[in-house]
Amino acid sequence: MLPLLFVPALLAAPLTPAVQGPTLEGWIFNEAGKPLQATVGLIPMSTRASSLALKSVESLGLPNKKKPGFKLPIPKAGLYLLDVRAKGHLPLQIPILLGEEGLKGMNLMPRPEKPKVELKPVSADALLVRREALYSAFKAREEKGRAALKNREKVDWSADLEALAKALAAETDGDAQGLLAMSYLNLGALGAKLGPEATGLALDKLSAKSPYWVLSPQIMAATYAAAGRNPAFPGFRDAAAKENPEPEVRAYATFSQLAATTRDGDLEKMKALYLTLTTEYKDTAAAKFSKQLDPAKYMGKGVAFPAFSFKDLEGKDVSLDTFKGKLVLVDFWATWCGPCVKEMPKLHEVYAKYKASGFEILSLSLDEKVEAIAPFRADEKHPMPWSHAFLGRGSRDPLLQAINLSTIPRPILVGPDGKIVEGDTLRLRGEYLGTSIEKALKELNLLKPN
Length: 450
Hints:
alpha+beta; Immunoglobulin-like; 4 domains; four-stranded antiparallel beta sheet; 16% strand
């Protein structure tokens, strides 16, 4: 939370320092319409989870219309959260798209913690009121969805999906459209099944240049798939990597380019894109994810899978030789990993279907404690009747170092000769998993009639 700074109400001179360049200026009022002392700051939307402003200024609270209650420098053009904190009032956050020219005359009224009169809108500007309400709802759904994923609970998002789709179809304000579109699409990352028509409508409101992608840039590829627009995604992705104003969005688009290039096995392009991510975008989340695609540790088709030797959960030795002559999916997972748990139905389905053809699974757990695995497998929904070994969270096992593991689930398909058949995570998850397994078995002449 931002610190609250207070000054005597009758100070004659403002305490805000001289500001050069574009500024955001306005007043903060209480529910009685009187100037309110508060701390005002700008949070880049890409760092909204931190709730820390780049720079804050104090609203003077002086009833002097010749001088602004606050005057905040704008670091650079972009999408921000205007963050207002005042004693006795709830935090107020409003998405605001700021340009090089700055913005003046913004009057805001935070909601009191204990209102004594009927609450008024947070601003006289209806568009700002709308955007604040949309962002508050977006944040509430996100918190609810993440909590449900953590607790392995299901949420029925059908009413939210329907309401957001209707609101988006009727909305005319461009910024509100961006917020509504991202609100709809982000539910897909929280476990909702997106409808292709509404997903397509949302994508129509979000060009490759839209700064609102920064709310959830990692969902770009998945939303194009949900809309049935996979062929159009490469063009969108390449445009976003060049033209989006938000570095975090450009970084994720570049990461998607790297992933596609890795699937194609183009090592020179991989090196160039990886260099861009780890230099130009080195401080972004996408750069951290890109470590699993380090060209120096390329885990693509034809590469020998690193040697390993473990004790399985039954105390038996397990190594790559254990699966010689078989097609094995080496799957790094954990019971605490929501996406890993979500993959379980498909893993069980393909294992049952292709086991007779020489398909095996080796699950390598990164749980905190080995004791977490047995209760998980005791659930009839996911008995996981295949080979298991425990590595542990934070493990420094040489295998993890060799493949540069940075995220889970991380499946890698290894052939009977110990060489990788498929190393692309996306092709080994969900509906793509069965297709990749069957294709590999056919190519290896192992597939038996089901």
